[in-house]
From TrEMBL:
Organism of provenance: Streptomyces flavofungini
Pfam families the UniProt entry points to: HbpS-like
Superkingdom: Bacteria
Organism lineage string: Bacteria, Bacillati, Actinomycetota, Actinomycetes, Kitasatosporales
InterPro entries noted in UniProt: GlcG_carb_metab_protein, PduO/GlcC-like, PduO/GlcC-like_sf
Protein name per UniProt: Heme-binding protein
Length: 142
């Protein structure tokens, strides 16, 4: 039996990460919101990070945790908020992994050719704003 080789999906590169950070930053600045932005590759490794000097220090940790959550669950964190209420499917998940998850809007997975290649997390604005900034950034790679 002959198998047909499959074409590998190009990974998320540092250049892609820079594009994501720049797009999220532009969206946040247009709304006059100070944020931190984190981009992770498919393995959860940090590719890019930006924190404005005016941003609250914790916003950097928040953006990283949002990106990690979106990556691990392959879903925008905005879609997961209801799933983590007591008795819901993901209620005990934060203690099951070696890294904490964060179920607040602002984390968005990044896909290429239908496959998960990374995630972006934005923290510092209102959750809805962070989600909007991250989603706008991901659209720039499409």
């Amino acid at each position: 039996m002959t198998t047909t080789p499959t074409t590998a999906v190009a990974p998320l590169t540092t250049s892609d990460a820079e594009v994501l950070v720049a797009a999220a930053r532009r969206a946040a600045e247009a709304a006059d919101v100070t944020v931190s932005i984190t981009v992770l590759d498919a393995g959860g490794h940090l590719l890019a990070f930006r924190r404005d000097d005016r941003a609250v220090l914790i916003s950097g940790e928040t953006s990283t945790r949002k990106a990690f959550t979106a990556l691990q669950l392959n879903a925008p964190t905005a879609d997961l908020v209801d799933a983590v209420q007591p008795g819901a499917p993901f209620h005990t998940l934060p203690t099951a992994l070696d890294r904490p998850l964060l179920f607040i809007a602002g984390g968005v997975p990044v896909h290429r050719d239908g496959r998960l290649i990374g995630a972006i997390g934005v923290g510092g604005g209102a959750p809805e704003q962070d989600h909007e900034f991250a989603t706008a950034a991901v659209k720039t790679l499409a």
